[in-house]
Write a structure and sequence with these properties.
The complex is a heterodimer of chains A (156) and B (348). Chain A is mostly helical. Chain A has 8 helices and no strands. Chain B has a 5-stranded parallel beta sheet, with helices on both faces. The C terminus of chain B is likely disordered. Classes of the chains: A mainly alpha (156), B alpha/beta (348). At the A-B interface, helix 3 and helix 4 of A face helix 1 of B.
Chain lengths: 156, 348
């Protein structure tokens, strides 16, 4: 099941921003739970990145470390390698109190997070044969990102 | 089995909650070490999976606190962390964790690691067997009621207090505290070999009877030594034997069976001596009433340096409020009276 799903997603997107088969395994094969998890990610990713940007811009190394660590953890759970690597580097710099050096990396992080967020509706759609539409939580899943994070953060 | 997962990040917490629930665990969750410690204490949690990096109390500190607390049942602790260097593993294990698992968790690895945890926790039935053995010996003695439980609690309190005093003995490690709690109920196991006419005599013993009664220390130690011959590296048996043999030794050398002096008496024996005597003094017997705490306290102080190791009497004084609480919690006069009457009827 995981292989078939992964194959179909590979056709849709040449280099997926996160590995769906890994995530589904980590969700213990529970497609509904995976949908809810992705919906949660979709709804909080923008805020997380903006809060991180704010803490870096204001030189708050402790908060920046904490937020970068949290984003890295989410990326790791999604098996989103690109997002995880950038978050890891931002965390490393923040932990070393070099938050100013982390600022240029925020653009890369936004790009990676945008890719993941944009991929969520595709995954949700592909999961529908495995899991019936969610009640309640379904409304939280944005089928297409309303505004990309890169656009939303233009000029900051 | 009930398990507690601790992570300050909701996303990670949800993922792990879902996985462990799917594996059949009853899952509790906490967002930081302080909240987790409270849940461990209140819900008798046996299995914990915790994040390393958390606000208020880190996963490492949380592990240390669990080991210092030494709850009644062993708490198996797994740290889930992105830190996978050898020095991180050493720090985690030194803090008291039993295992470390790399983040993000691999479901198959999580499953087998949890099975390991269950196997280790199953070994704790050994402690239940030890306690049952001690209870069997105690069941012949009508006087004792919840004596074993109280001595067990007092011995642990003393060891914990000693560990927090300046320049503690290097012998007092979290493992020692756990072992003294596990094995202190064995202190009177040799009484199983004392004839009924002596053990159940409702009154003071004469010299000859007292000489017979005193053999219970050697009897208990030889029973546990026989087990040690078969499992010579079993620390709990070594400590159990030392306690059984030396809990009637006195610091000034006037105790029995060997007349050991001062620190020649194993620390576990010196600790259980104070715990056992305090409980005997504050418990009712057919030949004496229960003394109030203050009178028992005065006797312990008076005997400091004679019967008892002064340092352990100091530890008693530092923790005496906790002694009073244990006494109140583990006293059931009605049950004790019934047990006493039933035993006397049997003797008659």
């Amino acid at each position: 099941m995981f292989v078939l799903l992964a194959d179909s997603l590979r056709i849709m997107q040449p280099v997926p921003p996160f590995i769906v088969a890994d995530l589904l395994k980590r969700c213990m094969g529970n497609a509904q739970f995976m949908q809810r998890t992705l919906a949660k990610f979709q709804s909080r990713a923008g805020d997380d990145v903006e809060r991180l940007h704010h803490s870096i811009a204001s030189g708050d190394a402790v908060e920046a470390t904490r937020l970068a660590h949290s984003i890295k953890g989410i990326a790791a759970n999604l098996s989103a390698t690109g997002m995880m690597n950038v978050a890891d580097e931002i965390e490393r710099l923040s932990r070393a109190s070099c938050v100013a050096d982390a600022l240029p990396l925020m653009a890369s992080l936004r790009t990676e997070v945008d890719r993941c967020v944009a991929f969520v509706p595709i995954v949700i759609t592909s999961l529908e044969p495995l899991a019936p539409p969610l009640e309640g939580d379904a409304s939280q899943v944005q089928r297409t990102p309303a505004v990309s994070l890169s656009e939303a953060s233009c000029g900051r | 089995m009930r398990a507690l997962i601790v992570d300050d990040d909701e996303f990670s917490l949800d993922m792990l909650h879902n996985a462990m629930h799917a594996l059949g665990y009853e899952v509790l969750t906490a967002r930081n070490g302080c909240e987790a410690l409270r849940l461990v204490r209140e819900h008798h949690v046996r299995l914990v999976v915790t994040d390393w990096e958390m606000p208020e109390m880190s996963g490492l500190e949380f592990c240390r606190q669990i080991r210092l607390d030494d709850p009644d049942g062993y708490v198996y602790t797994i740290i889930l962390t992105g830190r996978d260097q050898p020095e991180h593993k050493i720090a985690g294990l030194e803090a008291g964790a039993d295992d470390l698992l790399t983040k993000p968790f691999n479901p198959a690895e999580l499953t087998v690691r949890l099975k390991v945890a269950e196997r280790i926790l199953a070994l704790e039935t050994r402690d239940v067997a030890l306690f049952a053995l001690a209870k069997l010996a105690e069941s012949r003695d009508p006087e004792t009621g919840a004596h074993l439980e109280r001595v067990q609690a007092y011995a642990r309190l003393l060891a914990q207090t000693l560990s927090a005093m300046p320049s503690p003995s290097p012998e007092i490690t979290p493992e020692f505290i756990r072992l003294i709690h596990q094995t202190s109920p064995l202190h009177d196991i040799g009484k199983v070999g004392i004839p009924d006419a002596v053990l159940l005599k409702p009154g003071k013993l004469n010299a000859q009877e007292f000489a017979i009664m005193k053999t219970h220390a050697e009897l208990g130690a030889s029973t546990l030594s026989a087990a040690l011959d078969r499992f010579p590296h079993a620390r709990f048996l070594q400590i159990g034997r030392d306690i059984a043999l030396t809990h009637h030794e006195k610091f000034d050398g006037k105790g029995y069976p060997r007349g050991l002096v001062g620190e020649n008496i194993p620390l576990c024996g010196r600790i259980v001596a104070v715990a056992d005597v305090y409980d005997a003094l504050t418990s009712r017997r057919v030949y004496k009433p229960a003394l109030p705490h203050d009178e028992a306290r005065a006797i312990l102080i008076e005997q400091s340096g004679q019967h008892f190791d002064p340092r352990i009497v100091d530890a008693f004084l530092k923790s005496e409020h906790a002694f009073v609480e244990v006494r109140a919690r583990l006293t059931n006069d009605e049950v004790e009276d019934q047990a006493r009457q039933a035993s006397f009827r049997k003797v008659a």
